[in-house]
Amino acid sequence: MRIYTTVSAKISQEDREKLRELGLNPTEIIRKAVQEEIRKASNKALIEKMKRMTPVISKLNLDEIVSDIREDRER
Questions:
Q1: pLDDT tens-digit profile of 18-31?
Q2: Residue 49, domain extent
């Protein structure tokens, strides 16, 4: 079960009226925007970690790793 919290945002009265006229739900818009920003930040952090790991991974010998895995399976 998720626990929710309330977050408020101030928008212009004009924007609020436009939302009403268009039948848009500001709660859904805000929720989707927050989720999208979280996804973008998470992806950016993951890409940075991958960039830091590239020099280490490039030093690995794939053939050696495969043979080690096969050897472990045979035990």
A1: 999 999 999 999 99
A2: 13-74
